[in-house]
Predict the 3D structure of the following.
Amino acid sequence: MAPSSRTTHVVASLLLAGAVFCGGCGTARRRPPLGPAPELTGQAAMGEAAFMEKCNRCHPGGEAGLGPALNDKPFPDFLKRFQVRHGLGAMPHFEKDQLSDAQLDAILDYLKALHQNPTRASKPGA
Amino acid sequence: MRGVRAARVLAILVITGTATGALGGCYRVRPSSGGGQTSARGTRTIRPADVALPPGYSIEAVATELTFPTGVIFDDRGTPVVVEAGYSYGESFTTPRLLRVETGGKTTPVATGGRNGPWNGGSFADGAFFIAEGGEMEGGRILRITREGAVTPIVENLPSTGDHHTNGAIVGPDGAIYFGQGTATNSGVVGPDNFQFGWLKRKPDFHDTPCQDITLVGRNFPSDNPLKPGEKATTGAYSAFGTSTTAGQVIRGRVPCNGAIMRVRPDGGDVQLVAWGFRNPFGIAFSADGRLFVTDNGYDDRGSRPVWGAGDLLWAVKEGAWHGWPDYSGDHPLTENQFKEVPSILARQPNTPPKPIAAFGVHSSSDGFDFSRADAFGFKGQAFVAQFGDEAPTTGKVLGPVGFKVVRVNASNGVIEDFATNVGKTNGPASALRTGGLERPVAARFDPTGAALYIVDFGVMTMSERGPSPQPGTGVLWRVSRTGGR
């Protein structure tokens, strides 16, 4: 990599990091409430149930609450895994006997499904 | 190549550090942002279009200008009757009332109470209303009220002069009246937070009473003594403020007690224990198959024994069982790191607490609820839960408003979805969003046909470090109906 490419790489990284930081404490609801819901299947459906049990009370519906919002975070999965396993700031860490790797993977799939379907909400009259 | 690798490592470190800082650091550096932390005063605007619902549903305001409404009851003609509490946190005493809602929204008083609110909901059976009288001044009661307004207590002297009151008064499949009795304290220890509530000065000897004998580890909690400014106090669990406890000390249980679901026959008599180990079992409802469910307000981050990170819970009540308070949140002990490792105060747990059905947002104040039972409304079998909304910063800090909506819960898998919430880019009460939508939903109940969901909206209650400031005359009764196809 040429020096100019390296500089570009670092600058891009810093810009991304800055964007992440700016969004890090956001509380905004990034979707109109109660639009049509996507069908969750397989891993994402399992993730929804695990999210409700382990995450929802601090990040209700993925929005801000006791903790910051998750719906608007573009963090890569490895950062989210790191956060969950090690805990940072006020967030407690979750050991594997509290939240298995399979459950954590499923939760990440569920969060991706929410991002890909930003109008996630109620499925009327089911 | 070494330079490339170094640049990549640097980039990863920068991203990781910044992102984790953003995720982990903002809780401490940011101020609390609860939904009630506004300066909203004055007339409330009502605009149903500001409430978001799933497609095919509509909402309308049925009655307005109510003062601290906490419930709606349908009499045997299907007429809605609103319960006005007569007391609100913030030490605001008004007159408890039952108000019949006539066509057009006019209200007619059916009955009034004294200075012993809050009236916290009720039901109608055998030609009479049954009301849970919260009992802030004289202890909780279950009242039988005729259509003509004659009031007869069928239960009195419930231990209800603390933080949490007598709730519910729901008729069960067996014909008995089921009610909840909240705890005196946040987590078993009387402290300065109870002085801020207002009751410690009135009732300095009041404390929690268990339903069965319990044995303490003898842990005591030092605090300021607000009853004697400048002095300190040390207080043990299940004891009056300033009273220490010892290891192995047994606290005698009795019924009626705190943190319990109890029942009584409609004509009175002995109170029976149904289950205990709750904190504030506010909402009570039976599913179509006759199972008893309860919403329970979780611990606050306040007082001499603060608990962080405990959500409100939906329970399928296990008869006779202890459900975890004051040492568990759901089936998890408070000693876990997710609650900041709060040491136990009971030497022995009466039983392993059951697992709750669902966990709501921390400080959401998930309260009155009902099950959908009609195809005409949809979501049959699901629980519709009114969320009063956070009372930050008094109950603990939040980074964003929690609650202020109605959610529905699939009781088979614990999945919670919004059902009625305010339109906007952020969550919160209408007064904070400057809209005409929901403020503080406190109860949700289907009409006798099951085709319409009534939402009881307590009205504006702002919050500050000094506590709540409720605003009389801002309550609303909403009705949600299904108007379109799926």
